[in-house]
Design brief:
The complex is a heterodimer. Chain A is of the alpha/beta class. Helix content of chain A is about 40%, strand content about 20%. Chain A has 13 helices and 14 strands. In chain A, strand 10, helix 9 and strand 11 form a beta-alpha-beta unit. The longest helix of chain A has 15 residues. The radius of gyration of chain A is 19 Å and the shape is globular. By secondary structure, chain B is an alpha/beta fold. Chain B folds into 2 domains: about 300 residues, 3-Layer(aba) Sandwich (Rossmann fold), CATH 3.40.50; about 25 residues, no CATH class. In chain B, strand 7, helix 9 and strand 8 form a beta-alpha-beta unit. The N and C termini of chain B lie far apart (about 60 Å). The C terminus of chain B is likely disordered. At the A-B interface, helix 3, strand 14, helix 12 and helix 13 of A face helix 13 of B. The structure holds thiamine diphosphate and magnesium ion. The site of magnesium ion has 6 residues of chain B, from strand 5.
Chain lengths: ~325, ~350
Amino acid sequence: MAARNVAMREAIRRALREEMHRDENVFVMGEEVAYWQGTHRVTRGFLEEFGERRVRDTPISEMAIGGVAVGAAMAGLRPVAEFMTINFAFLALDAIANHAAKVRYFFDGMFTVPLVYRAASGWGNQATASHSHAPEPIFAHFPGLYVGCPSNSLDAYGMLKASIRDDNPVLFTESIALYPKPSPMPDDLDEDYLIPIGKGDIKREGGDVTLVAYARGVDWALQAARALARDGVEAEVVDLRWLRPLDMALVYESFKKTNRCVIVEESLPMYSFGSEIAALLQENMFDYMDAPIKRVAAEDAPLPYSKDIELLALPDAQKVVNAVKEIL
Amino acid sequence: MAAPTKAMLLDWYRQMVLIREFEETCHRLYEEKRITGVYLHLYSGHEASGVGSMAALRKSDHVITAYRDHGIALILGMDPKAVMAEMMGKKTGSSGGKGGSMHLASKDHNFWGGYAIVGGHLPLAAGIALEARYHGKDDVTMTYVGDGATNNGYFHESLNMSAIWDLPVVWIIENNGYAMGTEVDRASGQVELHRKAEAYGIKSFGRVDAQNALEVYAVASKAVDYARANGPAVIEHVTYRYRGHGVSDKQYDAREDMSAELKEWMATREPIVILRDCIESQYNDVADTLAGHEADAKRIVAEAVTFAEASELPSGYEDLMRNTYVSSERVHKTAHTIGAGID
Ligand SMILES: Cc1ncc(C[n+]2csc(CCOP(=O)(O)OP(=O)(O)O)c2C)c(N)n1
Ligand SMILES: [Mg+2]
C-alpha cells in the first residue's frame, strides 16, 4: 500500500477536521485556536472553514475551558477543548478530575460526557520548569477519564478519532517534540480508521528485552533498540498508546517471551507510568521475571532553563541502552 | 505628589533607553541564536509603564510581574550583566541560569520575580503584601499584570482577597491591547479592565496613557499613597508591545493591519520620544546628558553581552539538582537517577 510521510500535527489536524465534517456537534474551543490559527498550528484554517460558531477562541481561562467543555458535553455537544499546553491544564485539574471524570458516576449514569481535552505536552527547548511538564500520569490517576498519548502520525489520527467518537471523556496529549515529526500514513486511509481506546501496539519485535513506552518515550525506545541490535540484543518495543485503559495483556505477552523489562517515559520518576507498569509486572508476572525491572524517566528535579543541564535531566536513548545493559 | 525633578526625568530617560537597547539587543541575539529557547517576551514599547510607575516607589516597596520582566528588572537596578547572563542560561545569571528570560528576580531589590504561568504571580503578590500588613509595615507591592491575565481565575481570587484584607497592593494592568493574538474585546466582557477591580471594591485610579511616563508617574504616586494608607488600588496602563507577543510567535504580528497599527504607535506615541520632548521643552541644557545616556546604554549592554557570553553554563548533576529543596543532600541519591554524570 502506498504511504506518504506526514507530520504528526498534520495528522491530528486531518482527524479533527474530518470529525468536524462528520458530526456537526463536534466543535473546538481553546486559547488562540481560531484567529491565531492554533498555537501549534493544529487548527490552522479551521476558523475559515468552520466559522466562529464551531471554532471558538477562549480567554486565558483554563478553569472555565475545562468546565465549559463538561457542561456542553453533558448537554449533548461533543467539545474538543484545547489546552495550549498541558502545563495550563493544571489550572483546570478540578474540572477535569472532579467533573469530567465523575459526573457520570455520581449521578449513576444519568449523564455522559463525550468530550476530548487536547493538550500539547512535553519537555525541552528551554521552556523552563513551569512550561516543561509531561504529566500524563497525573491525569491517568482518575477513573472515569481516558488518557491517550500517541507516538506517531497514524496513531494520532486513529486515536483522536476514536476519542472524539467515544462517549467517555478523554484527555489526549500531543508531544510537542513529535508535532513536526513525519511518519508514514497510507494514501488511501479510511476516514473511519479508529484505534480502539486501550489498545497498545508492538512497534518493534524482539526476544531479549521488553521496552514499554508511550508517546515520545517510544522514539527513545526505538532508537535504543536499534543501538542494542548492533550489539546483538533484540529489544521488543511495546507502545501502550493509552495510559488509561492500560493494555497490560500486550505487555505480559511480551514479557513472557523476554523476561526482562525497561520502562521508558518522558515524565518524572516518582509515582509514575514506570511505577505502575513495574508494580503490575511484579504482581502478575513474578514467575517470568529474570531481572529487576528498570525505569528510565526524567531526573527528579524541575526542568531548568539552561540547556546542558536541561538535556541532562531528560531521558534519552542512551539512558535506555544503559538501563538495558544493567539487566542483561 | 511633587512634580518630577530634572534629575528624575533624566534618570527616567536613562532607564528607558537602557531597556530599549537591552531588549532590541536580546531580539538580535535571538535571531543570531546567541540566545536560545522558545520564550523571550520583550518590554520594548512598554518602557514608560514600568519606569513611571516604579518611580513612585520607595526602596522598601515590593515588585512582582509576569514573564515580560526584563524591563522591570533593569528599572529596579539589577545588573544588566546578570540579566543578560540569565538570558543565556549562564551560571552568572541572576537565577543561576535556571530561570531564563521569564524568571528574573532579585531579593536585594525586593523584586519577587517574573512568572510564566499567566496570573500565577497574582496571589503571590497578595501574599507578599499580606506580610507587610501582618507586621504593620506600610510597604506596598506593585504588581504588573497583562490584559489577558485579567480573564483568569487567579486575577479575580487574588484581587478579591486583597480587598477583604486591605492588602497594600497596587495592581497595574498593562493593557497592551493583546494577549498573544487575542484583542481585549474578544476576551473580556468588560473592556475597561480597571473596572473589574472596582467590582471587588478596590479603589480604581482609572486608565492612563502609559506611553507618557509623566502621566504614569502622577497616577502611580496617588495610587501608591492610597495603597500605603488604605489597601489595594488598581490602575490600567494603556500601552503597546513593539515586538509581538514573544520571539516564537511572530507571524500574527506580521499581518498587515498589525504592522500598520504598530507603525502608528511608534510614530505618534513612542514613549522615549514623548519623554525626551518633555525634557527638552523644559530644559535647554540637556543635550549632552541625553546623548550620554544613549551612549552609556549601548556600552552597558555591549559589556553585558560580552560578560554573558564569556560566562560558563551550569553543568552536571550537582547544578541540575541544586535548590530543588533547601537541603540538596536529600535529593542527590534517589533510586531513580539513571544516566550520565552520576556515581
Ligand atoms: C495559565 C496560562 N495559560 C496560558 C498561557 C500561555 N500564555 C502565555 S502569555 C499569554 C498571553 C498573556 O497576555 P497578557 O496577559 O495580555 O500579557 P502580555 O503578554 O500582553 O504582556 C498566554 C496565553 C500561560 N503561560 N499560562
Ligand atoms: Mg497583553
